[in-house]
């Protein structure tokens, strides 16, 4: 039982991979425990959003990924 974790944009560079698999159920604390210290610090930035199952979470600490879910870690978007 796993979820797919996607590190988008510069988060992939920090994490050292564009994606990873994680055992489910997976909550926010569990996700943070899987990544390196630099990635963990960046994910805690309020400008980073989290989507689970295609829906952006209003509060990322409410993450609860189940088997087959895709969790996308979304960096701030810039541009014009």
Class by SSE composition? alpha+beta
Poorly predicted runs of 5 or more residues: none
Q: What is the CATH architecture assignment?
A: Roll
- Total count of strands: 7
Summarize, please.
The chain has helices at 10-15, 28-34, 37-43; strands at 2-7, 19-23, 26-27, 49-52, 55-56, 64-65, 70-74. It has 80 residues and is an alpha+beta fold. A five-stranded mixed beta sheet has the order 2-1-7-4-5.
Write up this protein.
- This protein has 80 residues and is an alpha+beta fold.
- The protein has one domain (2-74): Ubiquitin-like (UB roll) (Roll).
- 25% of the residues lie in helices and 32% in strands.
- It has helices spanning 10-15, 28-34, 37-43, and strands at residues 2-7, 19-23, 26-27, 49-52, 55-56, 64-65, 70-74.
- Strands 2-1-7-4-5 form a 5-stranded mixed beta sheet.
- A hairpin with a 2-residue loop joins β4 and β5.
- The model has no long low-confidence stretch (mean pLDDT 95).
List the helices and strands and how they pair.
Blueprint: E1 2-7, H1 10-15, E2 19-23, E3 26-27, H2 28-34, H3 37-43, E4 49-52, E5 55-56, E6 64-65, E7 70-74
Parallel strand pairs: 1-7
Antiparallel strand pairs: 1-2, 3-6, 4-5, 4-7
Record keyword descriptors for this entry.
single chain, 80 residues, alpha+beta, Ubiquitin-like (UB roll), five-stranded mixed sheet, 7 strands, 25% helix, globular, Beta-grasp_dom_sf, Mopterin_synth/thiamin_S_b, MoaD/ThiS family protein, ThiS/MoaD-like
